[in-house]
TrEMBL record:
Superkingdom classification of source: Bacteria
Domain Glycosyl hydrolase 94 catalytic stretches: 307-734
GO terms assigned for molecular function: carbohydrate binding; glycosyltransferase activity
GO terms, biological process: carbohydrate metabolic process
Organism: Kineothrix alysoides
Location of the Glycosyl hydrolase 94 supersandwich domain: 11-293
SMART domains associated with the record: CBM_X
A Pfam family annotated for this UniProt entry: Glyco_hydro_94
Swiss-Prot/TrEMBL keywords: Glycosyltransferase, Transferase
Name of the protein this chain belongs to: Cellobiose phosphorylase
Keyword Protease belongs to the record: no
Coiled coil: none
Amino acid sequence: MKFGFFDDSKKEYVITTPRTPLPWINYLGCNEFFSIISNTCGGYSFYKDAKLLRLTRYRYNDVPGDVNGKYFFIKDGDTVWNPGWQPTKTELDSYECRHGIGYSRFTSSKNDVQAQVLTFVPLGDNCEISSLKLTNNSSSAKTLSLFSYVEWCLWNADDDMKNFQRNLSIGEVEVIGSTIYHKTEYRERRNHYAVYSVNSKIDGFDTSRDDFLGAYRGADAPLAVENGACTGSIASGWSPIAAHQLNLSLQPGETKSFIFVLGYLENLQGEKWESSGIINKRPADEMLAKYQTDEDVEKAFARLNNYWDGLLSKYTVRSSNDKVDRMVNIWNQYQCMVTFNMSRSASYYESGIGRGMGFRDSCQDLLGFVHLIPDRARERIIDIASTQFQDGSAYHQYQPLTKKGNSDIGSGFNDDPLWLIAGTSAYVRETGDVSILTEMVPFDNDASVAAPLMEHLRRSLDYVITHKGPHKLPLIGRADWNDCLNLNCFSEHPGESFQTFGPSEGPVAESVFIAGMFVKYGEEYAQLCELMGMPTEAERARKEAELMNEAIIKDGWDGEWFIRAYDAYSNKIGSKECEEGKIFIEPQGFCSLAGVGVEEGLAKKALDSVKEKLDTEYGVMILQPAYTKYHLELGEVSSYPPGYKENAGIFCHNNPWVSIAETVIGRGDRAFEIYQKTCPAYVEEISEIHRTEPYVYAQMVAGRDAKFHGEAKNSWLTGTAAWTFVNISQYILGLYPTHTGLSINPCVPKNFGDFELTRQFREGNYTIKVQNPDNAEKGIKQIYVDGSPINGCVIPYVKGKTFYDVTVVMG
């Protein structure tokens, strides 16, 4: 069942009913100011950091759901309705929500009045614009009242929802003309404030939530709207809001427009707030002056569209498969950009309070967006590396505002260091910019202790080399990529310390997954060493990677698949010897894509085992059989019911690893089959089962053992976006950036047909026609560049060359 449709020409998903299975959301903002908006106008805004600089409130787990947002109430006689349906839920005569690239547009009607709302965050300003147009489609005049409504958060979202004894006394607002100022906390040496303004003379306002809503009422039935008049309340403590009232009359066929601006401002350094009010409202005045007319909004919206068109033109495909085209050209890359901005911090499944930027997460996200915004990718790598410790380990998370490591989460996730190599390698291959490797970067954000980024990478590599267990495999630490596989947390023997099982540093549980990572990224580190004129170090890295490869084959192979790990007692995890959790997806995908066991035929066996034991119609499960009882010695993984999350759920993030591995051994049919199963455009038809947005990837889909098999959770912010784009763009469609040029080596299903690609790589623009006359899954007969044949699959990079006309013949 579908709840809308794709409009590819406009790069929009069109939602045709407000009653979607879950709120279907969009992200607004490109740089520092961001908003989340649902298809019923729920959501919130923040500046830079969703925890520390939250502008508007949102209540997670509220009942009914998704009822705190930025709303417009239209009062037409006794009828009150909202363009986005919520929160009044008045039945609408028509409804449409178009989620576009950085904007959302709502068009609804009731009793012959049409409302159109366009909401977006403009480039270059820290504000959200909502352009509202009301049209009278009846044959008689209409007298209406329009009310806006936002509820301010008292800046720190965590403190805002917990510290009532203080926060109910600190709310401060001011109203000047049609602008409502939220100046709470300015007395605490802060220089920021927020505004909500409209470009029209208002007929009333409220800034006290209790006065606007009324006692024991909610946003579904505000007393002020029911009475047809705001009260002019000025909040003092309690819960400050911003609500405007505009009375209007519309002749038949007439349209009136209003521009609402929600913004974040800072006074100039040294300027203070006076008790009598605002002594410097100039920053707000200057910003609001830019958005006073429909023409102003149209120009800002056009700039935003041009910005996104430019980004999304850097990699495009035109094939006979419209679902592939729309995901590659629009939605997958768009989600990569949103995930770059948010990491895992703020969504409808992450409150923006508990998590900041992830070390591992952000490094992986780089793989999906580095071609879009290489300059910002460079900055992100430096930010991430700055949280690393001198021994090569790192904070697992850091706060986006402070760039400081999150000490509450700490470190000890032993895969983290290798992801820094992965992200840096991707950046250098994409840009050719080796200067980043000599950039001085602090350890633990301590400027007195800094080293070139290349030294950070060496310590990342050496952290794994110096932290191995009895099978010469990497120590897992608190966990590797699977945060819930905590093999060092508990002892089978009460009172017995893990210190007795390993070196003085602690327990010795080992990860075959990290071992596979080391083989892949050890080689990528060696290539960086060669670029830097360090052949001895490159040779050392390759020797260590070969030793790790041998260790995997010797002690990480279980006969038909790669084992997952060894616990601190050297018991196998993910082995045929186990009663539950016999096979895990992670090492099958990552060891195989790293090339481990490919020549020996082990990779093929492992991938065949994945198909036999882990595959479902909705994707590949993370493990089987599911854990049906709690395993204290395994940590959190078995705390989930069977089929959910890490306990045999379909973790969409690692499905691309298996698909990539299939391309490594040349099985395009199987690689594409895996790609399709979790691809949003392919599951749109079963939205009543899948439930999350059919235009973006979810983190998890319930596995075969779950009651609701096929149901997705945790959409938008997931490493699935980056890894899936890497899979489809670099391995299936086959354009892989190397240090010496752009490699072209597709691996597609036999019936995929010919296709065309465009790709910006460094300063070059590539137009590539791929011909597949023999319906080959993989293999290149010949590549022609500007009409001349070349040897191999890599188009040599020519500095200064701006255009490459390429024909690829598969076979």
